[in-house]
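FAQ: What does the model actually see?

It sees only this:
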Amino acid sequence: MGIMNYGSGAGADENWIVEESRFDPRFLGKCESIFALGNGYMGQRAAAEERYLGETRNFFVAGTFNKFSEGEVTELPNAADLLWLDIRLNGRRFNLLDGKILGYKRFLHIKNAELVREARWEAPSGETFALRFRRFVSLADRHVVAMRVEITPLSGSARIAEDSGINGRMTNSGSQHFAEGGARFYDGRVMQLAQKTMQSEIAFVYSSAHNFFIDEKPCSASGRICMDRRQIFFEFGEIEIGKGQTLVIEKISNVFTGRDNDIDAPDLDGLKLHSLEHLQKIAPRDESVYSELFEEHRKAWQKKVWDAAPIAVESCDPYDQLAIRFAQYHLAAMTPAHDNRMGVAAKGLSGEGYKGHSFWDTEIFVLPYFIYTMPEVARSLLEYRYNTLPGARRKASENGYEGTMFPWESAWIDDGEVTPLWGAADIVSGEPIKIWSGVIEQHITSDIAYAVWQYFQITRDADFMEKCGYEIIFDTAKFWVSRLEYDAKKDAYCINDVMGPDEYKEHINNNAFTNYMARWTISKAIEYFEHLEKTDYALLADLRDKLDLDHARTLWLERIDKIFLPQPGSGDMVIAQDDTYLAKKSIDLAKYKNQENVGSIYNDFNQEQINSIQVSKQADVIMLLHLLPDLFGEEVKRANWAYYEPRTLHDSSLSLSTHAIFAKEMGNLHLAYELFSRAARIDLGPNMRTSDAGIHSASIGGIWQCVANGFGGVCMVAGELHVSPRLPEAWSALSFPIIWRGEKLTIDVHKDKVNITRSGATGGAISIWVNGEKRNLADKISVELRV
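And it is asked to produce this:
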């Protein structure tokens, strides 16, 4: 019997439940990550209340980065453990590794964003108990974490006791980020722990309170107040209950930090008082509040997520519907929509992987979901990049360039580049492998400019462009024109010593993706300069002075047409991924294409050897053709698809969704669906190891792209909306909404037709390209599909 069950939901819960059907301590990391709870402000990894060897108890608050020592990079610190709840039944500590498990399931209810665990347990002494654990991280009140435990003795009366508290001894794989800030009990029931990060000096305050009930009636629980180093807890005395009675324990907690933008409590003492008053208000003594708080939370999820972007898939495999809902759940749980000083982490808020840093994952894979469904959140994420401009300009200057050079890994807005310098061991030399991405993977600067342009084209948010967007595009173009190197032999400007999206190729020259995107960025800067000359000369004058645009524009115009752009081959029409890729040796990649775990090529080759082989980690040239679909014609796209797809191992979780969308464009719906299915199983699927370090944010965003941009056919080309859907054989219908320039459109796709409905029209008809033909949408159009 497998551990994971994806079909347990029935009735109203159908395709809303992800279940762990049996407990296996060998695979704790899987469900800790995919069951992680969050609201964008904070994320709580789904460790059990009781503790197990091999678990990872993570709790993160977005934006609270700290550096452990000068030799390390900044990371999100693992904050205090609020889950701490050790239960003793008739004097025996409850643990699933003792006694017998008579029944077990744990599930994430995606729609309600609640984690539930149910167990029937026989103690070593023979007594049996039913236990039910529930918890959520509130979307209605971002500071609240609520827990409820129900314990019912089944074989006789029982004495039940617990130890519960706040544990500030947590580390990031051994690195302790916090100094003690004091602990205190209030009114004999509210425990509070305060801490400060040691380098960034961010205050954290946590408060917790308990209430007890027997068969829903309040009962008292005396306890001993305990404090220890970085810990505060209660040792509650035993409560006696009869057979069949149920003891309920509610533990309501909150967390506040010095980075919070919704309160005016700048110092530690102010946070302590605010935290105390907040908890006393939401969790009065002897009142059961879990259900009330949960209902507010459930309604917030319904309004902010499921009503805002409902997606319906009619598939012969119900897993497909579950997968897109799972993706939407994590997109909401991990995105700090509340604060434009914070970005989306590559592992969300579900694990220590990549230290909480933001990559191009946000702009290229996560952002499209929000642009098309919640543009206000997309704007906040782009404002985050604008707020990081000082660090990005510092990076450019330190590397000898002008303008803005965005960090490959980004953390707090002032941090600049935070990519670690060293990684895993080289299998040949045994030495740590140098991580070059922070130095030479420079395409992220164009990726962010592209995201700004994409957002503006889809939303027409002129206010954002005036305040942030134009400046980002102009300054990134300044960087690229300063980055160009003239090659006399080619009589062209080249971009040398870089890494493209394919991270298996280091220190290469003229990566096609990088060069084309650099030229695209400069062309957009020229276009917008001319646009502002005609429409807003005052704004342009301010930016000219701030960024020295007159000199920059002279260089843009001089060099843009001499940037080296790898062209399709005269015979095979293949675009060289870089100057040497096509000359590298080819090997049989079948072993690695069919691998069970990604990165298996490193079992046979080191990085230097991989660099000499025609193999790609992920979409590179295909990514270029995907982002700029009007760059080349159909024949060139097909030639490059045929060449690069067999050579791409998809060893990055970012890759499968891009290839799935492109396979659909190539008319290969069977392969498109296969790639989509593989992408949808990176985290959610049966592999019990892939998510140990946290969920894969880019892949999560890519699942939505497969559905909406792939099979749904939504694409923005040259500022115009295109809808060209094709459903895979397994699907009979697909429905989803998008927002196009302030107008909500619902796209209903069937095998033979597509219906596009406009809600709340505010003006004249909208022009849309449907299956290559221009249509005018007033209220609704229906178009037959060529199958």
